[in-house]
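Consider the subject:
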Amino acid sequence: MNVRNYCKLEIMSLPENISFARACVGAFASQLGCTLDEIDEIKLVVSEAVSNSIIHAYQNRGTELITIVITLLDGQTLEIIVEDYGKGIEDVARVLQPSYSSEPSRMGLGFSFMKSFMDELEVISQPGEGTSVQMRRSFVSKDKEAYA
């Protein structure tokens, strides 16, 4: 796949940066000509991935780094990678199960939302080293001429 556009954000693991990450990724995705509902879905998956980094990987320490890479591939596929360098996940298959959360007070639906709104979801994690959440979604452009 050819890279058509690319953006990399590095944010601190502060809850107030969730809305900033959402806005940035939403603005980037808007060049695909998607609907407002589709942009809201993209913003939701970014919120979930960044929140997971803050809450689970960094245990609410606001001094850590989260990296978000957004890539437009071949003019119609959006790839989003959210990476942290926190505690990592011991059992990735388990956390991908609906309603599972390592925090009893949480609903555990973050990865379920990510799976439902994206075409592809891959979680790569190493205990003690961090986690990379890689997501892709293809959009049919309303104006294919603009991306040719």
User: Anything to note?
Assistant: The helical segments are 17-29, 36-57, 92-95, 110-117. Residues 131 and 139 are 26 Å apart (CA to CA). The domain at 3-147 is CATH 3.30.565.10 (Heat Shock Protein 90).
